[in-house]
Write a structure and sequence with these properties.
Blueprint lengths: L2 H64 L17 E2 L9 E2 L1 E4 L5 E5 L7
Antiparallel strand pairs: 1-2, 3-4
């Protein structure tokens, strides 16, 4: 084998090493992307849960200010079916449900922002 044959073998070996390194980099970057998306989804679900807790605390706080006797007409007794939230029944929505999509764009939860009252 001549010098040109050796050069071709060396070039092919170098290109093979670069190709393998590129494939390894791609596989690692995809694994990192998947891990970061899962982390983002877990953060979103955590904040949805925290928002639900804050909302429940606010509703119970407002209910406690109105009366101390529980009844079926209390704010916390109502189940909201729509996307508008009308807490006090005056046909003016105090809040809107916020849909939370996951990393694939599918809705995996929703929460209303806390109600600001006087």
């Amino acid at each position: 084998m001549g010098k040109s044959g050796q050069a071709v073998v060396v070039v092919i070996a170098i290109l093979s090493i670069i190709f393998i390194a590129g494939i390894a980099f791609y596989v690692l970057s995809q694994a990192e992307r998947t891990a970061s998306m899962r982390h983002l989804d877990s953060l979103r679900s955590r904040y949805i849960a925290e928002a639900g807790v804050v909302y429940a605390q606010k509703v119970l706080e407002l209910d406690r200010k109105e009366n101390l006797i529980d009844s079926a007409k209390d704010r916390w007794f109502t189940n909201f079916a729509g996307s508008d939230v009308d807490i006090d029944g005056d046909n003016i929505p105090e809040s809107r449900w916020i849909e939370m999509p996951d990393s694939e764009g599918k809705s995996f939860g929703r929460f209303p922002p806390p109600v600001e009252r006087d």
